[in-house]
Amino acid sequence: MRWWWLLVAARVAGQACCRSGTTCATCADIAPLCEFGAANATECTSVGYVWCEGVDVPEPSGECCDFVDPDGLCGTFVAEGGYCTYSQKCCEEDCGLSWYKNEGTPTYAPTAAPIAAPTITPMPTATFAPTRLAPVEKWGALRVDGTRIASNATGAPVQLAGVSLYWSNFGWEGEDFYTAGTIASLAQWPGLSVVRAAMGVEDESGYLDLPDYNKRLVEIVVEAAIENGIYVIIDWHSHEAENYPEAAKNFFAEMATAYGGYPNVIFEIYNEPEPLENRTWEVIKAHCEDVLAVIRPISDNLAIVGTRRWGQYPNESAADPVDDVNVAYSVHFYAGWEGHDDIKDAVHEAVELGAPIFASEWGQGCPHIACDLDRNNTESWIGIMDDYQISWVNWVLNDKSDVIDDTLSIFLPGVDPVGPWDDDDADYTDAGKYTKSLIARYAT
Ligand SMILES: *[C@@H]1O[C@H](CO)[C@@H](O)[C@H](O)[C@H]1NC(C)=O
Ligand SMILES: *[C@@H]1O[C@H](CO)[C@@H](O)[C@H](O)[C@H]1NC(C)=O
Ligand SMILES: *[C@@H]1O[C@H](CO)[C@@H](O)[C@H](O)[C@H]1NC(C)=O
Ligand SMILES: *[C@@H]1O[C@H](CO)[C@@H](O)[C@H](O)[C@H]1NC(C)=O
Ligand SMILES: *[C@@H]1O[C@H](CO)[C@@H](O)[C@H](O)[C@H]1NC(C)=O
After folding, report:
1. Most buried residue among 6, 36, 71, 315 by CB atoms closer than 10 A?
2. Could you read off the pLDDT of 339-349 as tens digits, one per residue?
3. Ligand 3 centre and the CA of 267: distance in Å?
4. Based on the domain organization, do 353 and 305 belong to the same domain?
């Protein structure tokens, strides 16, 4: 690789200042050129390091980038061989630029083993225990039929029930659950028919920062869902999606091309539009129609469109629907949060207006603050969703126990993300046990 030659060329071959290790032969840490001590023997020994001759100078761990484009990729790498390129410290601390581990991958990308590429089988292969038929084998592709979702092939109404993964963002502690094993274990839950891959977008280390990483996690989940015969929601987990239309269109074009032919796949185009005075339903709708214009030539699959105020106003969307025949409108609610009770009215209104609703995210407690789980209100919501056959996805399949998510995580901290989760009391939180039991009501 070019780094090796540049570094060697930039100093006398084989000479280096060793910062750790007892002998030059076992030097574990050679000072990069721009750091104090590296220049020559005098400087090196003055700071207590060992000056070595005839050692292998390691290649830098990455590259230095002076322009990061909106997709989080390095637009321009610093000219090869320059001072800023010698090490991460030179690049970041001395030059104030960004260090990339590999071309296009920022420094906080995982440095552990690369994510293994899952093998994808051409058509769903059910790996279920023979207690039931895999949902996708049973219903196939989904289409909107009035206010309901139906099997495109048979017209039978379909009400999906399942769970959402946590944000995919690197370092947010949800990513451990984006594994094929997790999805295979989840598919064993009686009644479970859908999983949601919540791909972070604009927040730190989401898709805009780390497109390849986040997309890879989604791919793993989608492919595992296909293999296990369950539906999977590809969720653009953004609060301001219309700010990044090109990124969204590129992503969904790729997803539709790779997976849009599989009946399993549901596209969720805009997670939760955060309220802003100028983020009207018209703005949200126009963005979703732009993205659908990219998806539709490739795939007819069901799409979910986010509704205003974090998914709370499907009634408003129902009055001015998106120009597409296979779209459902999201409703998001948290049963422990008193302020969310009005959302029930919005759902009733939306259904009266003839709109299909999809509860692509809901929780038993509160969003982003600790509160008690409200089982009574949860049952009230489940009753409404069952009356209208609204498909639903519970938040969240994770084991975080911080103040934000302690009432919502399905698993106790430290659970094996891959499963199997055999022991209800040892593996599941109270919320998790209850969610699992709710989903079991849909077992056929
Ligand atoms: C060692 O390098 C430092 C920093 O570049 C320089 O100031 C000093 O003169 C050098 N000493 C010798 C002996 O080359
Ligand atoms: C909407 O308002 C926000 C500030 O609240 C502003 O940053 C943004 O540019 C506005 N967007 C448009 C399209 O006017
Ligand atoms: C439903 O079936 C019709 C007729 O076969 C087909 O044209 C359409 O693309 C299908 N829709 C979906 C969502 O698969
Ligand atoms: C939608 O429902 C909410 C909650 O009941 C209500 O506040 C809002 O005014 C409704 N919007 C429309 C356009 O009907
Ligand atoms: C339970 O929920 C129902 C429906 O929302 C409500 O009418 C009732 O008052 C609730 N009961 C308790 C004890 O909170």
Report:
1. 315
2. 899 999 999 99
3. 16
4. yes
